[in-house]
Amino acid sequence: MGGCYGSTGPASINPETGKRWGPTFPVLRMSDIVEAQMKLLDHLGVQKLHAAIGASVGGFLCLLLATRYPDRVKVVVPIGTGVETTTYQRIINFEQVTAIEADPHFKGGDYY
Fold it and tell me: b or e along 72-86 (b: 16 or more beta carbons within 10 Å of the residue's beta carbon)?
């Protein structure tokens, strides 16, 4: 959810306008992604995962899954992540966002 290849995201069509969501797409948090994943598992009838494995942001999602649903996952393998973001990581993220927003083709996120 929220990604370029997910169930829905900024490239999806807003049913109210008939246009791509673009910069008007609602803000998503990692907890929203985990909740969507759990609803999918419920729909598929999966009660418990043997393992949740993820790197970087996926590692944060694994940790969030384990803390919110400890009875639904046996093994958690977060890779290249931690339990919190550091000031350094936030600066790097800020620089990446600034670089994207500075691209003249970005057009405030309405580049479709």
Answer: bbeebebeebeeeee
> In this predicted structure, which of 18-22, 75-79, 81-85 has the lowest mean pLDDT?
81-85
Are 78 and 93 in contact by the 8 Å Cβ rule? The answer is: no
Q: Which two tokens stand for residue 110?
A: 């309405």
pLDDT in tens, 27-61: 889 999 999 999 999 999 999 999 999 998 899 99
> Using CA atoms, how far apart are residues 72 and 105, in angstroms rounded to an integer?
43
Residue 44 is inside which H or E element, if any?
helix 30-44
Q: Can you give the pTM of this predicted structure? A: 0.76
